[in-house]
Every structure is written in structure tokens, then in C-alpha cells.
Amino acid sequence: MNRTAHTAFFAISCFASVAHAQLLNEPPQIDETVEHGTPEYRSTFPSYDASLGTLPAQQGWTESNFNGDDQIIGQLFHLNASGSSAAAQVNSVGFDWSLGFRYSMTTRVPVGTVAVTFLGPGYRGGADLAARDAVGRQYGVLVGASSLVFSSQSNFSPDPLLTVSMPFDGASEFHTYTIVSDTDGATLEIDGIPRLHVPEGDLQAPGSPYIQWSIDGRANAVESEWASVVFGTAAGMPCTADLNNDGVLDIFDVFEYLADFNAGCP
């Protein structure tokens, strides 16, 4: 085997080993077709069963309200076991290379044992988030551009799914926080730090992230001018085998390795 062939074989072997090692370090992959297409690489943490149930009647949320045109503006949502006030944490991370997003956080909540409650503006024109509504509760936080999709008939399960999808052109974090009211009653403390001021209509301002509901089973990436890090964001784990940093594992990463190797780069 000549030097060029040996180098190529070594590069491909290293590339495969690194990629395989990363897969081993990630949670188990899923191979179902998701609403926005089939990703080349995707993994998720375990998700919690959830019941779409009856959304808050005072905000006019019923299944009949939801169609492709309905939009909800907000940031906070609360998952709790049906009949219980205890919040259920949801941890789910997906990498969707096919969309060109380096990190796409997704929480898949199958119908089952958890009720979903949203605070913040409700179904078009709903009441704004009030500090008193959040005191002492634990919430999941959607940071930046996000979309929520309600699918009455999903592609990978006969049961309805609530999919919380967070497409990002960068890194992001999904986390649960305990929220309490600050002394002025207009600021919320998140994990003991005053971080969120909620004046009238603030969450409906132009450029704010919004949530899109749909029953057609398709998630549309939602653009947003607002990419606040008010809740704190953390860099996701990069793919070390993606040498050219284009979000795709392919032959061009091998070429990049060969170029670096021949140039004497480590």
C-alpha cells in the first residue's frame, strides 16, 4: 500500500472511529421519520409520556383552536403529572444535520401521563404572563427561535405527539428553572437571580420568539430576531468528526483530514 493510499485508509479509519465514538457517547439513536424530515444523525434523551388533555379553559385552548395558522407567543411552559402539581423535567436533545442546523433541541412528549400547561400569552390575544402565575413553580424554558407542533397523527406513532422543537443556527440549552416573584412583583427570579421583567404586552413585542401549533404533523422553523440569553445558554457538544464544520459527516471531512495530515497538522 503506497503512502497516499495508507494515509487515506488511516484518515477514513480515524474518521469512522471518532464518529462511532461520538455516537456511543450520545443517547440511543431513533430512526423514526420526524415531522420536518429524516435527519442523517439524531439522538434523544428519554422523554416523558404526556397527555395533551384539556388546555386551560380560561385561555380558550381547545383542540379545535389549533390549525396551521394559529400562533401562540410565549416562552414558558409547565409539564406536570396529571392530577399533580409537581413539574416533570423533560430532557431531550436532537441533532438534525439535514436542516443545516448544528443543534436542534427537541422534546417529544407522547400522549400518556403528563398534562401540559402554558403560561404567557395564550391562544391569540391571550393574557400576558403575570409574575403571580409563575411564583413557586418550575418551568421549561424555550430560548430563542422555537416552534411547538401538535400532531394528531404523527409519522412514527399512531398516538398523538406534542413536539417541542428548537431549531438553532448555533448552540442552545433547554432547562427547567424554579421561578419566584421578586420584591417589586414585576420581576421574576429564576434560580435566585432576577432575570425576567414582564411589563404589559412585553412578550408580544415584534421580534419575540413565538410558538406555532399545527395539526398537519410538520414543523416549520421559526425565524426570530430575539435570541436572548436571559435564561442562560450553553454550548452544545460539537461533533469532533465534522472537521470542516459544515454540520454534515461526509467525504469532505476526510479530505479535510488528509489536507491537515499532509500539512503536518495534529
Kindly describe this structure:
Helix content is 15%, strand content 24%. With 266 residues, it is α+β, with helices and mostly antiparallel strands. Strands 1, 3, 4, 5, 6, 7, 8, 9 and 10 form a nine-stranded mixed β-sheet that branches. Residues 7-182, 184-188 and 193-238 have low confidence and may be disordered. It has three helices and eleven strands; from the N terminus they run αββββαβββββββα. The longest helix has 23 residues, at 3-25. The protein folds into two domains: 1-30 and 239-266, no CATH class; 43-235, no CATH class.
SSE inventory with pairings:
Layout: H1 3-25, E1 50-51, E2 71-73, E3 76-81, E4 103-118, H2 131-134, E5 137-141, E6 147-151, E7 161-168, E8 175-181, E9 187-190, E10 193-197, E11 210-212, H3 251-262
Parallel strand pairs: 1-4
Antiparallel strand pairs: 2-11, 3-4, 3-5, 4-7, 5-8, 6-7, 8-9, 9-10
Helix pairs in contact: 1-3
**Low-pLDDT residue intervals, each spanning 5 or more residues:** 7-182, 184-188, 193-238
**Number of discrete domains:** 2
Structural class: alpha+beta
N-to-C CA distance? 23 Å
The major sheet is characterized as:
9 strands, mixed
SSE string: HEEEEHEEEEEEEH
Rounded to an integer, what's the Rg over CA atoms? 21 Å
Q: Which word captures the global form? A: elongated
Residue fraction in strands: 15-25%
Number of strands: 11
The whole-number mean of residue pLDDT values reads 35
Query: Count of DSSP helices?
Result: 3
Q: What portion of residues is helical? A: 10-25%
Properties at a glance:
single chain, 266 residues, alpha+beta, 2 domains, 9-stranded mixed β-sheet
